[in-house]
Amino acid sequence: ITLSGVRMIGDGPGSALKVASATGFGIRLDGDRPALGRLRLIGPGSTAWPTSAGVVDLAGISLAGVQIAPGATSAVLFDLAIAACHTAVAVDGDLASITGCEIAFSGRGVEFRSGAGRATSGARNRIHHCRFGVRADGGSPTTAISLAGGDVTACGFGIELAAPGGFWRSVRGSGIAFARNLEADLRASARHA
After folding, report:
1. Which of 133, 165, 180, 187 is the 20 to 30 A CA-CA neighbour of 3?
2. Strand-pair partners of 18
3. 132: nearest Cα among 113, 151, 109
């Protein structure tokens, strides 16, 4: 685990890691089976844990709060709270699971990129007030995303799946709630199931 430009705010319950840098990453997970949990991370878009969109300014910010590094295998995220980042969780490696996380007031909640693994699962996550809740870009090799429980609310797009090259993607959902997403709960290009 690599930390970049972070400091602690507060002590004990309610404390958080604050990321100062507007670019790069706050926390980077690398290697075999890295895990990160029970942590609050506030990106550079806010000075404290945001309670409304009006206190978040993402202009000029390209920071990933947590990055699963290229080459990382079987990464696990659990019980995290991440807010005020361009991308809360940037998946550039293999993310095995993300469970019980709250992701808020970020441009992109969870984004699967070109180095991401083929499959991932999520359970009981709350994603709200993000431009994209869960997003797989066109270069991502991710073919299967399984989501159980949790909710995606007040996002631009709840789930966005850009068209991959030469294969199908599937998203399986069970008990996941969508509410007040401005553009669509799910937007999928060709080659999705």
Report:
1. 133
2. 7, 42
3. 109
At 153, the amino acid letter reads T
Alpha-carbon gap, residue 149 to 16, rounded angstroms: 26
Structure confidence by residue, pLDDT tens digits, 38-72: 999 999 999 999 999 999 999 999 999 999 999 99
Rounded distance between C-alpha atoms, residue 104 and residue 132, angstroms: 11
DSSP string for 36-94: EEEEEEE-TT-SS--SSGGG---TT---EEEEE-TT-BSEEEEEEEEES-SEEEEESS-
Sign of CA dihedral 53, 176, 99, 93: negative
From the list 146, 150, 98, 90, the residue with the least C-alpha distance to 126 is 150
Chain center to CA of 82: 8
Percent of the chain with pLDDT over 90: 81
Higher model confidence: residue 153 or residue 138?
153
Residue 131 predicted with pLDDT over 90: yes
27-31, 121-125, 170-174: which has the minimum mean pLDDT?
170-174
Token pair 């002590």 is at which residue? Answer: 11
